[in-house]
C-alpha cells in the first residue's frame, strides 16, 4: 500500500509552522523597533544604538526555535518510518504473508533525522544576519529618504519593510542552486526527510519478509523529472533488472516482470526529489496492478499556478503585519482579498485541485 502523497506535507507542516511563527515574530520585532519613536528627533542614532539589543533578542528567539525544531523534526522522522513499516505490513497481509515487525534500524533512522535537522540548524545564522541587515537597511533607507527630501521617514521605512515582507528571509540554497524563503525551505527539508524515512521503513519491512520488488505510484500533476518512473517496477536490492522471471504470488507458476532498475537508480535519476509526491508499494507478481499514469503537463502547470497564488496571499499577509501606518495596512489587506479571489477563480477553473488553506497562512504567532 503506497504512502499517501500528502502525508509528508502534513508531517512537515508540524515543523514548518515553527519557522512560520518565527518569521512572523521576527517581522513584528523589527517593525516594532523601527516604529518606536519614528517621528521624534535623533531617531536614526537611537536605532543604531538599539541594534545590539535587537540582535540579542532575536538570537534568543532562534535558540528556542532550534531546540523546538530539532525535537519536532526527530519525532516526524521516526513517525514517518513507522508509517512506512505499517503500510508495508498491510501489503504483506494482503499477500497472505505472516507479518512480523522488522526491528527498526534505529541507527539508520537517526542518520535520516540528523541529515534533516542539519540544514534547519544551518538556516539560523543566515536568519540572524538577515535580520540585522533588514533592520540596518530600513534605518538607513528611512534616514536617506528624509535627507534627500524624497519621502517622510515613516514612508521610507514602510517601503523598506514592504520589501522584507514581500520576500521574507531568503538565502537558503538547495543543491540545484534555487533560493528558498525560510518557511518553504524548512517544509521542503522536512518533507523530503519524512518521505525518505517512510520509504526506508517500507522497504526495510518488505525486505525483512523476502520481498524485493516495489512499484512507483501515480502522482497526479507530477513533475517532468518523475514522470518517466511512474508505474515502473523497481528492485530494492538492485539484484534484478530488466526482464526477469519471478514466482507468482497467486499461483504455482512464474511470471515475467520488467524491472526498470533499482530504487537507488531511480533516486539518483531524480525520483523522490525534494517535495516529490511519489511513493513506493510492494509489487506482488501476479497480483499487483501497475498504475497507469494519469498526470498531464497542463495539470502540473495548474498546480504550480496554485502554489504561486498561495505565495502571493502569504506575501500580502506579511505586508499587512509589517505595516507601520494605516494606509499600508489597508492596501495590504485589499491585496490579500484580491489574491484570494484569484485563487478561488483558479480552483473553479481546475476542479481537480483542492484548496489548502494551511498553505495560505503565515503562522500562528500573535
Automatic annotation (TrEMBL):
<dbReference type="Pfam" id="PF06152">
    <property type="entry name" value="Phage_min_cap2"/>
</dbReference>
<dbReference type="InterPro" id="IPR009319">
    <property type="entry name" value="Phage_A118_VSP1"/>
</dbReference>
<protein>
    <submittedName>
        <fullName>Phage minor capsid protein 2</fullName>
    </submittedName>
</protein>
<dbReference type="GO" id="GO:0005198">
    <property type="term" value="F:structural molecule activity"/>
</dbReference>
